[in-house]
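Researcher: We plan to redesign the surface later, but first we want a full-length starting point. Tokens attached.
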């Protein structure tokens, strides 16, 4: 499970930007989980995939229902997704049209443990935590402007090594929401060790921030970046009708590294 959300993030991106997934464009491959293969070689479950031109695993007349990623689709519907990521399809955002609901659900279907562990409130909390952290990494403002960017804004800073310089004409920079791990923390399956407890690392949203960027954001009192992550998380919890839980910040937690 530790690596599932890393892969989930990659799958979310693959749902919108990678090479074709199925059909004649991909060696006649079938889509996973009985998804339809569209005429253009993409996997999904709506009319644009299952209707005219569908290549395989098609449903007569296409699908007229909202796609479901197990419990994820029942919690985050298209309407809720649009509320959570209110401006991701706004022309003022670099990401305009990149982060799609169908891609999100397809990615969720690929990893059965994502958003499906525990009772409904635990599942909601995991989804709110995932989107809260990734929204901070892609934000253009608090707290409705998550998923506004696709690429790192400062794209030249990663070609600074004299030993491993970038080839001519190439750049290396962050892309996508984030590579997020440790789903066990937010669903209540992680127990702190004695070393964790002595470092004030306790279960909750705050320790996820510590895992992601604790060396810069945690252990030195209030940090605006931590507060930004919390702000997104709280907004998403409010939309999902969920309490916030405890230990939201990492202000007094010693970083992991």
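Model: Full-length starting sequence:
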């Amino acid at each position: 499970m530790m690596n599932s959300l890393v892969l989930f993030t990659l799958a979310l991106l693959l749902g919108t930007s990678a090479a074709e997934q199925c059909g004649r464009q991909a060696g006649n491959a079938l889509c996973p989980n009985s998804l339809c293969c569209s005429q253009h070689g993409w996997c999904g479950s709506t009319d644009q995939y299952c209707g005219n031109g569908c290549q395989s695993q098609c449903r007569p007349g296409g699908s007229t229902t909202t796609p479901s990623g197990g419990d994820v689709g029942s919690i985050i519907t298209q309407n809720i997704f649009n509320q959570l990521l209110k401006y991701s399809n706004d022309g003022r955002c670099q990401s305009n049209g990149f982060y799609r609901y169908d891609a999100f659900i397809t990615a969720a279907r690929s990893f059965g443990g994502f958003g499906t562990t525990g009772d409904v409130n635990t599942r909601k909390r995991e989804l709110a935590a995932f989107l809260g952290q990734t929204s901070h990494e892609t934000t253009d403002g608090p707290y409705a402007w998550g998923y506004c960017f696709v690429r790192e804004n400062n794209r030249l800073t990663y070609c600074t090594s004299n030993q491993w310089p970038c080839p001519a004409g190439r750049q290396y920079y962050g892309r996508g929401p984030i590579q997020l791990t440790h789903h066990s923390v937010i669903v209540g399956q992680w127990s702190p060790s004695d070393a964790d407890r002595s470092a004030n690392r306790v279960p909750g949203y705050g320790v996820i921030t510590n895992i992601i960027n604790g060396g810069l954001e945690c252990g030195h009192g209030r940090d605006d970046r931590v507060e930004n992550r919390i702000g997104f998380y709280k907004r998403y919890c409010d939309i999902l009708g969920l309490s916030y839980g405890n230990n939201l910040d990492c202000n007094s937690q010693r970083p992991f590294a």
